[in-house]
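The data layer described in this paper is built around a simple, fixed record for each protein. Because each token names a local backbone shape, the row as a whole describes the fold. We quote a single record here, exactly as it is kept in our systems:

***
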Amino acid sequence: YECSVVIKQWYQRRVRGEVIGDNTAGHFTCSFIAGTAATVITQPFDVVKTRVMQGSRYSGVIQCIVATAKEGPMSFFKGFVPAWIRLSPQTILTWILLEKLRKVFPAS
């Protein structure tokens, strides 16, 4: 949640009064950035978790991290595109809907 709020605040300061403002296009852009950032941040953890859960190939998390690192730094991002395709639309729809609901039901 905070990632989207920070990106939205930064974006509004940078683009205020220019091409995109506090509208659906602006919310879409901020949500897209937030979804991409969330995928980039969580993908290495997801790769390690998946590899540890697959079976007895690794004796623990540290061994899995070391073995994955030996494959190269990009091995922590295997499956990035499917994860991004799954997460981004959900993030975009969630934050656009939230912003629309905030306009309909303003805080008192």
Summary: The chain has a mean pLDDT of 85. The helical segments are 2-15, 24-53, 61-70, 80-104. The CA atoms of residues 90 and 108 lie 28 Å apart. The longest helix spans residues 24-53.
